[in-house]
């Protein structure tokens, strides 16, 4: 359980350098020294084994000894979700979606989304941190403040027989996920409305784009809870 | 989506009083006045319709007009989970478990649980707030700092043919939830280890108590994420 994965951008050179935060962790918490082996990912599927050459509290450099390209997941899972109105809920949602292994996250600016103050750099840090924590080698792509159509357009770039789109509905009469779920698709797409949900015209757009409405719970779920629920549900159905 | 549910303890009398926080919300945010109708739950399954007699920023009192006992859920879902080591993660987990409709939450003090500072009153407030938000009438029961055996003993108080116990395992070779899930049980029990997981002797105790180990993800999930995942998964399998 104490396995440790670092993150660093990798240009293909012989040396790889941890950023200041990872360097501090490597040096101060893990007390790694020159000669110790560490495992690094670039978030693009590479598992990089490096041997530390130099460790200081601000800068750790390793020599790259081995690069293994990790297999891609059997399917992609992309989610479009109305931006939560509270920065803390947004951050928490990104952490959990990353832990639960999504491929693409579109934060949607739909008609009922309230303006939200957030720092994009901080959101990226949260995603990287969750990726390392959950020992993953692929970093989810994050798209911020996109219109709903950006997500449905993205959905349509995938082959019709290889994709399934599912949209969380507040209508309790909508079918359950497991009853409409199609196994063995290569690409899954989940849509979750913001606080106050999608508008009727947005619902029509979603439905005509080929997304199935599904019911996730008998209770009223917050946006971030519904997002976690649908992603977790799709993985567990596989 | 703007439906509002208040919480108040109810003694059976003709009048019901909101606490200070709910009174403030009722008066200041919703601008309710004497004569307006509000919906209240006592967390014990009662949906109480009241007509406001008096509203002030600190105290709202309603006359009870109707009490409807809401149907019990078709099954109970109890979770025993190692206490997260971070108060914010603990609070967040309680909010989400409540939103996702659990019946009993045992926060377990297992061998690898770190001491944690928390305020019990605050935890209860979080649960009440999530219950109101998600429009539920039954409040999850919270048991704090219990040994693992308290949860397995509780499991054994239910009839063998009416219960199923499932334990989240870090072993990726463990079967998926859907392959061992038994439909139409009356009582489900989920177990999730703390950071660092259960010890081997704890694992033996869990297994000999009749819990099935299941794998929830290929990734390493944080305690609170695993707890949400297993609860959500059980509901979606039903």
Give the secondary structure arrangement, pairings included.
Two copies of one chain form a homodimer.
Chain A lengths: L5 E2 L7 E3 L2 H10 L7 E5 L4 E10 L4 E10 L6 E7 L4 H13 L4 E5 L11 H14 L7 E6 L1 H9 L6 E7 L7 H4 L6 E6 L7 H9 L2 E5 L7 H15 L1
Parallel strand pairs in A: 1-3, 6-7, 6-10, 7-8, 9-10, 9-11
Antiparallel strand pairs in A: 2-5, 3-4, 4-5
Offer a quick outline of the entry.
2 copies of one chain form a homodimer. Chain A is built from 7 helices and 11 strands.
Question: Count the helices of chain A. How many?
Answer: 7
| Beta-strand content bin of chain A | 25-35%
Q: Oligomerization state of this entry?
A: homodimer
Major beta-sheet overview of chain A: 6 strands, parallel
CATH superfamily of the largest domain in chain A: SPOUT methyltransferase, trefoil knot domain
The low-confidence runs of chain A, each spanning 5 or more residues with pLDDT under 50, are none
Briefly note the structural class of the backbone of chain A. Answer: alpha/beta
Which CATH top level class of the largest domain in chain A fits?
A: Alpha Beta
- Could you tell me how far the N terminus lies from the C terminus of chain A, measured between alpha carbons in angstroms? 25 Å
H/E element string of chain A? Answer: EEHEEEEHEHEHEHEHEH
On the 0 to 100 scale, the average pLDDT of chain A is 95
Q: The CATH topology of the largest domain in chain A is what? A: Alpha/beta knot
The side-by-side strand order for the widest beta sheet of chain A comes to: 8-7-6-10-9-11
């Amino acid at each position: 359980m104490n396995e440790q994965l670092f993150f660093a951008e990798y240009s293909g050179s012989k040396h790889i350098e941890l950023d200041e935060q990872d360097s501090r962790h490597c040096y101060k918490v893990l007390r790694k020294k020159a000669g110790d082996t560490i495992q690094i990912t670039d978030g693009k599927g590479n598992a990089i084994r490096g041997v530390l050459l130099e460790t200081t509290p601000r800068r750790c450099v390793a020599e790259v000894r081995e690069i293994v390209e990790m297999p891609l997941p059997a399917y992609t899972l992309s989610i479009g979700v109305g931006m939560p109105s509270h920065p803390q809920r947004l951050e928490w949602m990104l952490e959990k979606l990353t832990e639960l292994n999504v491929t693409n996250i579109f934060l949607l600016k739909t008609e009922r989304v309230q303006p939200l103050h957030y720092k994009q750099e901080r959101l990226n840090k949260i995603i990287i941190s969750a990726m390392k924590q959950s020992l993953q080698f692929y970093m989810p792509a994050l798209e911020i403040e996109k219109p709903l159509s950006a997500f449905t357009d993205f959905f349509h770039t995938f082959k019709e027989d290889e994709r399934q789109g599912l949209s969380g509905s507040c209508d309790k009469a909508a079918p359950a996920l497991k009853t409409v779920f199609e196994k063995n698709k290569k690409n899954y797409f989940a849509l979750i409305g913001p606080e106050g949900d999608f508008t009727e015209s947005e619902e029509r757009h979603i439905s005509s784009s080929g997304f199935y409405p599904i019911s996730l719970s008998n209770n009223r779920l917050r946006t971030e809870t519904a997002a976690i629920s649908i992603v977790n549900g799709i993985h567990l159905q596989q």
